[in-house]
UniProtKB/TrEMBL annotation:
Record's keyword terms, sorted: Cell outer membrane, Membrane, Receptor, Signal, TonB box, Transmembrane, Transmembrane beta strand, Transport
Domain TonB-dependent receptor-like beta-barrel: 261-698
Domain TonB-dependent receptor plug: start-end pairs: 58-161
UniProt protein name: Ferric aerobactin receptor
GO molecular function: siderophore uptake transmembrane transporter activity
Signal peptide interval: 1-33
Membrane topology per record: Multi-pass membrane protein
Organism encoding this protein: Pseudovibrio axinellae
Pfam families noted in UniProt: Plug, TonB_dep_Rec_b-barrel
GO cellular component, one term: cell outer membrane
Database matches in SUPFAM superfamilies: Porins
Protein family membership: Belongs to the TonB-dependent receptor family.
Cellular localization per UniProt: Cell outer membrane
Biological processes annotated in GO: siderophore transmembrane transport
Gene for this chain: iutA
């Protein structure tokens, strides 16, 4: 087997470089950073996502990041989409695609699992994710990010896990907050006006509390750096960032007792996008086709989510236990795209009868038990439990005709994780998870229509898909250790595995018989994809004091059945692949009033696209958009209520090798251009509330949105300069 890049030597060089940078920062800022770990106003030293139980970040053998409310608000820069903040703060997360969809966004080149209070908001069976854009940032207490493959929450976390923890009423009596953000482009203030308003109210008494949050969002047109309007659907049916009207309502009840705690969270979201014109996907960049009025139904989302967590304490020899229950129900309508090279299949000539609606229903239960085994060995801890999950997925035309196989899946898992100290310097842990999935794929008749092939329209026959059952099972493992060099410094190394069932719905939507023009039968059991195990290796170190935080890591991940989508052929392919990279996250105080930091990430990967047994083709652009990504930021507090902040967000772009022709000539992936975006803002805190004002893309740079472009290899421009003003007050 030949690997094009990412050898052990190159990985060692990456690790050496990141370790050197840590040493440099520790030396230069040592004079101000005190050698003691302390908590800020927000306790960001404890996480629950990495192991499903509360533990210190310092004990985790992998890269973990906790984003507090203040840091999140700074990174949003007037946006109401938390993916904007994550793309700037989380090294391995893709740059923002500036749409309502998560299309093209990846985590270390792989899929990311989105959780809210530990309950899933994504499903692998059919990927049409809008999870991040639908969450009200003002309802968030903190975000916990676990990098690398993980099976701790079941299916989907092959690149990492992002767990969004919503806020609860913390102070006795009544509390509340209000936030309003307005933003606009100078190109056309009225047409580009965005307005987002959030309200929160809480009450706490005698260990019981309730928190309510509501958000209204309305977005206007977006303009690129040249002053042209950005299309309302630049990502081929997934919607855009303009013309959105969204309502978000959530509530959380908490009861804290001596023997148990109870938390119940509920959330409903309604979103609709108004599209006026179709998009011309043949132009470079994609543009609005003002001669073609949009005739389809509006892209929309109607979702409801409910979760409950029960914590039981001191259950004798068993220890502590946590029971989590969740239920999600979502209806997601995609945008209508006329038949073209961007959408080669049209099921009906009537626009609003040819677009699709996804229905996703999820339910599940998780039991986690934390047992102290110190009687056997001092500090020995066992975490064990079991999970059950249910998914019901279908996708149809507005008249009810299925275009993918309706599916139901039951998942059952059991796990055990053990951790223990070795002396005063070391902590080790290891675990195993047994995962079973029972997938029922119903038979269905995919309607006929028209298919565009080599520029010619052909009739598309009705295709009957047979019923099938798939059984997926795997034992996945993790092992790791942490060395505590001193109270502030840890060095860690770990191996973990993730298990994922691929986008089965996508396979059944795009499968075609040899002669697609006639009615035919397709055997689903012959085309259904295989589940994939991802192996992730990671080494790194952390340094944390009250004034300086540094985290550096290098990773290498493998999968024998990675999944990639080829937009040119509309095929989904599985093949062996490898991804490697390094990440650095530094933030600190240079003086008591001046802070600075940098977020750096590098990732690249290859796969065996042609099946010749050699990993010599770069992974597609929709998996890795910018091998190098950086955010540099600085802030200054004048200590009179006024502070300023500036940042630069940099993407390297990419020039990748796609494959080799039969004559041996190499041909390349579509080139992705580099990008540099400068943002600036100021904040004034007063007794009447806080005012934040600023500008994104300060220099109105005309550049590509690399993540949106990479999804389908069609150039999509990034938004130009936008001014914003935010008012917020807590009471």
């Amino acid at each position: 087997m030949t690997v094009a890049r990412g050898s052990a030597c190159s990985l060692a060089r990456v690790l050496l470089c990141t370790t050197a940078v840590i040493s440099l920062f520790q030396t230069s800022l040592y004079a101000y950073a005190q050698e003691s770990v302390s908590e800020s106003e927000e306790d960001l030293t404890v996480v629950v996502t990495a192991s499903r139980t509360e533990e210190s970040v310092a004990s985790i053998p992998g890269a973990v990041q906790v984003i507090g409310k203040k840091e999140l608000n700074k990174a949003l820069q007037g946006s109401s989409d938390i993916s904007t903040a994550l793309s700037r703060l989380v090294p391995g997360f893709s740059l923002d695609n500036q749409t309502l969809s998560g299309g093209g966004q990846s985590f270390r080149g792989r899929s990311v699992q989105i959780l809210v209070n530990g309950a899933p908001r994504t499903t692998s069976l059919r990927r049409l994710s809008r999870a991040l854009s639908l969450i009200d940032p003002d309802s968030i207490e903190r975000i916990e990010v676990v990098n690398g493959a993980s099976a701790i929450y079941g299916d989907g976390g092959t690149g990492g896990v992002i767990n969004i923890i919503t806020k609860t009423a913390e102070s006795e009596g009544w509390s509340g907050d209000i936030s309003t953000t307005v933003s606009a482009s100078e190109r056309d203030v009225s047409d580009s006006l965005n307005v987002t308003t959030s309200l929160g109210a809480g009450f706490k008494k005698d260990g019981a509390s309730i928190q309510l949050n509501g958000q209204f969002k309305n977005t206007g047109d977006m303009f690129d750096g040249n002053g042209s309007r950005i299309p309302e659907d630049p990502l081929t049916g997934q919607g855009g960032g303009s013309g959105i009207e969204q309502y978000d309502l959530s509530g959380q009840f908490v009861f804290e007792g001596d023997a148990f705690d109870l938390s119940v969270y509920a959330n409903i979201v309604k979103m609709e996008q108004d599209i006026k014109y179709n998009t011309d996907y043949t132009s470079d960049p994609v543009s609005i086709d003002y001669s073609s009025e949009y005739l389809g139904l509006s892209p929309m989302e109607d979702s409801a989510n409910l979760s409950m967590t029960l914590n039981f304490y001191d259950l004798g020899a068993v220890g502590d236990a946590k029971l989590e229950l969740y239920y999600n129900n979502a209806e997601k309508r995609a945008a209508y795209v006329p038949i073209s090279a961007a959408n080669i299949i049209e099921y009906d000539t009537v626009a609003n009868e040819s677009q699709t609606v996804l229905f996703a229903e999820q339910a599940g239960a998780r039991l986690t038990i934390d047992t102290d085994l110190s009687t056997l060995y001092e500090g020995l801890q066992l975490t064990w439990g079991s999970d059950y999950s249910f998914d019901d997925i279908s996708q149809s035309l507005p008249d009810g005709q299925d275009i993918i196989a309706p599916m139901t899946q039951h998942g059952i898992a059991s796990f055990a994780q053990i951790k223990a100290p070795i002396g005063e310097l070391f902590e080790v842990r290891a675990g195993v998870r047994n995962q079973l999935y029972f997938l029922d794929i119903d038979s269905f008749v995919r309607p006929g229509g028209t298919l565009l092939y080599n520029g010619v329209e052909y009739p598309l026959g009705e295709h009957t898909f047979t019923k099938a059952q798939k059984f997926y099972s795997a034992h996945v493992f993790n092992i790791g250790g942490v060395m505590h060099v001193n109270e502030a410094t840890q060095v860690f190394a770990g191996f973990s595995q993730g298990f994922s069932v691929p986008d089965v719905g996508g396979f059944t939507r795009r499968a075609l018989p040899a002669n697609f023009t006639v009615d035919d039968v397709i055997d689903v059991s012959a085309i259904a994809p295989e589940a994939a195990i991802t192996n992730s290796f990671e080494v790194g170190s952390r340094y944390t004091t009250s004034n300086l935080s540094i985290s550096a890591s290098a990773f290498y991940s493998t999968s024998d059945k990675g999944v990639n989508f080829d937009d040119a052929t509309q095929e989904i392919l599985q093949a062996e692949e490898r991804i490697w990279g390094a990440e650095l996250n530094v933030s600190g105080k240079i003086t008591p009033v001046w802070g600075a930091g940098v977020v750096l990430a590098y990732a690249e990967g290859v796969w065996d696209q042609d099946g010749d047994g050699k990993l010599d083709e770069d992974l597609p652009n929709n998996r890795i958009q910018s091998p190098f990504k950086a955010t540099l930021f600085s802030d200054y507090d004048f200590k009179n209520g006024f502070s300023v902040q500036g940042e630069a967000v940099i993407g390297s772009g990419r020039s990748g090798k796609k494959g080799t022709t039969s004559s041996g000539t190499a041909y390349d992936l579509t080139k992705l251009e580099p990008s540099v975006t400068i943002n600036a803002s100021g904040t004034y805190a007063s007794q009447y509330g806080d005012f934040q004002f600023g500008v994104s893309n300060l220099f109105d740079t005309d550049q590509d949105n690399v993540t949106a472009t990479a999804l389908r290899d069609r150039v999509v421009l990034a938004e130009g300069r936008r001014f914003f003003l935010t008012y917020s007050k807590s009471f």
